Each structure stands twice: as C-alpha cells, then as structure tokens.
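#structure-requests
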Amino acid sequence: MQQSSRTQGFFTFAQNTDSVDYIRLAYGLALSLKHSQKTVKNLSIGITPGTIVDQKYAWAFDSIIEIPWGDMAENSEWKLENEWKVPFISPYDDTIKLDCDMLFLSDITQWWDKLISGEPDIVWANVIRNYRGESPTNDYYRKVFTANNLPNVYSGCMYFRKTAAVFEFYYLIKLITIDWESFFTEFLEPQTRPSYFSTDVAVALAAKILDLDQLSYKDITVPTFTHMKTRLQNWAVESINENWQEYVTPVMLLDGTLKIDNYTQRYPFHYHIKEFLTNDIIAQYERLLQL
C-alpha cells in the first residue's frame, strides 16, 4: 500500500434496537477485519447517544462516536436516518463505510490503493455478488431503481474521501432524509415508490439529482460484496423464504475460512440474517486472534 499521511479506516453505524444488538454485530465485523486485513484494520462505530458499550466489545473499535445533532432514527427499527452524517463524523480522511452485519474474509489492501489514488471522491458498490460469486440476474428488490433509471448504488459498502463535493452530496441526502416522502413523491413513479425511508434510494436519488459522473456509480467492481438476500442467489424456486440458511449451510473452518455449499467466500460477506453471527463464530475469531 502506498505511504500516505492521510488516515484510512472502516466505519459503521451500530445503533441497538429492542430486537438486535448491533454493537455485537459490529464487534464481529471488527474481529473479522483484524483477522483478515494486512494493513487497514481499524473500525470506528457511531452509536446512539448515551449508549454504554461493554468493554468486551469496546476494545475492538478504533473510535466510539456518539451520533451528533439528535437521533433522527430514534423511532425507527432499521436505524437508517442518521446515515447522512457519515462524512461529518468519520474520524478518517478516507473511509470505507459498511453495514455492520458483514464479515471480511480476505485482504482488500489493493482496494484501498485503487480507491485512494483514483477518482471520484465517492464510490458505491453497484456490482454485487451471490455466494457463488455470480452477479444477480434479477431486480426483485430494486424495481424502483429500474423503473426510475436510478444508479444501482449499495450504500452498505462504499468509499469516500472528505472533500467539499462529498459534503455537498451528503447535505442533499440530509434534506431527502428529513422530507423523504415529498422527494420520493416528486421524483419517483408511484408503482414502485417505497412507502418507507430507504438509504439506498435516497443516495441514488441524490446522485441523479446532482447528475454525478456515471463513473461514480456504474459498472464499478471495487468495492463489492456478497449479498445473501435469498432472491439474489439465482435459485430456481418460486416460493422462497428470506432466511437463506434454510437452503444452504454455512461452515466456518478453523482458520476462519467461510464455505457455503463448498464455495469459499472471499468478498465482504453481508449475511443479512442477524442470527448467522453465532457466539461460536465470535469465539472462533477470538481464538484466531489469541484473545
């Protein structure tokens, strides 16, 4: 990796809900980064103000940052409404922002080299994978993107550097977040328009409104990730449960390799179903790290 005085790191939001301990999920992500990465291993998290992070998790994070300017996701189960704040609160000059229900299974040092030295200042994943490494062939979850010709961005894995253009972009996302119903009504056709706030739709809409260079959101291979939503797996079944673990069995080997139906997982792994991160997986990472 090229030497740089700029700081690099990963960032995720970890706001607990009544049903999900997102700080625990972020801890699993942090362990996977420490195990898999050769250079950039540091993960910082944004938490609900007043949250006490147990030391059994806290040690693994580079920074624990209380989300500023009020908790806009206070009444939300999915906790998406604070994501526009990420460039303002990330402690790094160069950030890869992630969803916290992910694991890293191989080193991505080359990604940092490419992203930091290249253009543009902000890059979203838009070519994703299934567990066999294939690109999904349907838009089951993304009909609003197809119908409205929106850039196919995935905000759950994206890179940005702190520049004026990035801050301007996220200020627009703030405005969309605050009044998403009005923006969605004005810019999206009614048949596929979401009836709830979606970060991916807000980001895509902001990109379209600002007419960003298509290079920033089209046919980008880095960053990318494996997305385990069931209808992205190209399975030839009509009726399908959203819990992918009912159809395939994940196995984590003693060295931390993750296999699904004998396919070794190499990309960042967005497991989506929170129960996937068992205590056994966490304990295995802790053993690998000799904790």
